[in-house]
Specification:
The chain has 3 helices and 9 strands. The chain is α+β, with helices and mostly antiparallel strands and about 130 residues long.
Length: about 130
């Protein structure tokens, strides 16, 4: 069964990559609910960072790594970001080296404006699905 965003069923390939996030024990957020989400987000907390993925109604995928903050959907600073095809966003965020490993992104940059969309949504009704 695919994830339905707005009126559109996402591709089977996207569903496979969303399952890869689930297998990697990401926590999922469904805005406003799991049955008919307008936006889906995934979150993985490291001790030293947080990785975030967002899938928006227009089909855009967003992924970023931020420093640990109280609200991971509202980072001021990120060390890595990607926006575009949602499959590539998932592939890229899963390919990031763990914090502290060689090659991890360390350059601090201001969070791009698209991150604000997740911040705005996080204050509305949503359903959280912890890793199983």
């Amino acid at each position: 069964m695919g994830v339905r965003i707005g009126n559109q069923m996402n591709s089977g390939l996207l569903d496979e990559w969303l399952d890869a996030l689930r297998r990697a024990r990401w926590t999922f957020y469904y805005f406003p609910n799991q049955e008919s989400p307008r936006t889906v987000s995934g979150l993985y907390r490291w001790r030293e960072a947080v990785d975030v993925f967002g899938l928006f109604p227009d089909g855009t995928g967003l992924a970023y790594r931020a420093l640990p903050v109280e609200d991971p959907f509202s980072p001021d600073v990120v060390t890595w970001t990607f926006a575009g095809d949602p499959i590539w966003a998932i592939r890229e965020v899963l390919a990031l080296p763990p914090p502290g490993a060689d090659g991890e992104p360390v350059w601090h940059q201001f969070a791009p404006p698209l991150c604000q969309v997740l911040s705005d949504l996080s204050t509305t009704n949503h359903v959280i699905r912890p890793p199983t």
